[in-house]
Amino acid sequence: MDNLNALLGGFADVITPMNLLIALLGVTVGTAVGVLPGIGPAMTVALLLPITYGLPVEQSLILFGGIFYGGMYGGSTTSILLNTPGESASVVTALEGNKMAKAGRAAQALATSAIGSFVAGTIATALIVLVMPQVVSFAITLGSPEFLAIILVAFVGTAAILGSSRVRGFAALLVGLSLGLVGTDFVTGQQRLTFGSPFLADNIDVVVVAVGIFAVGEALWVAAHLRRKAGTVIPVGRPWMSRQDWGRSWKPWLRGTALGFPFGAIPAGGAEIPTFLSYLAERKLTKHPEEFGQGAIEGVAGPEAANNASAAGTMVPLLALGLPTNATAAIIIAAFMSYGIEPGPLLLTKEPDLVWMLIASLFIGNFFLLVLNLPLAPTWAKLLRIPRPYLYAGILFFASMGAYAVNAQPFDLFLLLALGGLGFAMRRFGLPVLPLIVGTILGPLFEKHMRRSLQTTGGDVSGLVGGPVAWVCYAFVLAVLLWPLVAKLLRRGRGGDDGPDDGSPHPPGVPLTGVAQWQGPSS
């Protein structure tokens, strides 16, 4: 009942003409930018983050929540119409959605995506109201050793589980940790990795890192592979669904929500796994198996619901523990920190009105998105006709303006360009971006809790081992790190070797990662 009263108070704060206008503006801009090819939710949030500056904190968070949900909605349009997922979680939507569009059912694909996202977002946001206070109450009882172990889980999870290669994942994490160390040591006052530059003494702003890695890095990457030929845009029409489409979609919406929210709420969960699980579940449970691979509506409804439920689930560890579970959540933490608000267990105690207002704005923004996406889908599709050179030139312009607005220092523009070059190099060599962002944000927090843990025991390493929570986290870390060795030993125990022995065409030494995968000898 206390949670419900607090949520009603949040609605009372949000439902004012100006705040509703801000929410509508956020979801509109977020959807418009998120619908553009190659721009996922994380890049959308990073690019539009600077426009929240100058507003009161309350309105900034309302606008930011709208941008967050709008960017999530926008990616489905690109996947369905252009077969160009803006992020890895949208890949599954493109499998069946683009086939539906090519078969003349783009309107139905967009409709089930929008309605499914609304259903999943609403249910998942309601689950935030129920789950988050309990998580906060539990988190307050934890000490520095437990938080140290939880952050270590986030490090290992993002580097080893979500990436296609452990080596590349940990390499990206180390780069992020190095960026997080730049500046002045908060204990000794010594400067670290500043190379004598006074501009780096106050640390590198996370907003500059996010905009540089995502926006500038992506723009440089696209420019290096630019093709001047315009892509073909499929006509949309007015999105609508028949009674049969409704009957085939509502169960996948609920199943996708049930799969997506838990994965978003756990550290290092992500949306990739539940979207694939949702697709496999719908393929197994469907009464129309012959349509899968040809444009089955269940293959769009379920994964899209799982994707948006997972996105809403990220708010639980973000608000309760201060931990990001994906790149978009990491940039949201950067937004909090830019206003001097520290996400974590004490956030709900120190800023309860702000937190409940943000959650209430997610309900309202979710409704606005449904109203916008259904009638305006043909309009969003027209944005896809913008030539790539103009599109990414605009992205570079707004990225530069946003980076300069952080500290009003020209040095940040040179830093932005350097980080953009780093983002380009990471894409060139296949390094995942998320571990870098997580390392940059959580690195200083990891250092702080490590020092506090060691101070309690006079520098003895036993201070790093806390209660049962820490033991569970360390067990998880060991399991993840040792699993490749254990799997190899199990294969040898069965008489196998390092390569597949089941007749599959994948030879030893040929990685199953990247865009071009080895498909075996031609017949």
Please characterize this protein's 3D structure.
With 523 residues, the chain is mainly alpha-helical. It has one domain (2-487). The protein is 69% helix and 1% strand. It contains 20 helices and 2 strands. Strands 1-2 form a two-stranded antiparallel sheet. The chain is globular, with a radius of gyration of 23 Å. It starts with a helix and ends in a 30-residue tail after the last helix. 49% of the residues are buried.
Shape estimate: globular
Strand content: under 5%
Number of strands: 2
Largest sheet: 2 strands, antiparallel
From the alpha carbons, calculate the radius of gyration and give it in angstroms: 23 Å
Strands of the widest sheet, in order across it, are 1-2
Uncertain segments are: 497-523
Tally of helical segments: 20
Structural descriptors:
single chain; 523 residues; mainly alpha; two-stranded antiparallel sheet; 20 helices; 69% helix
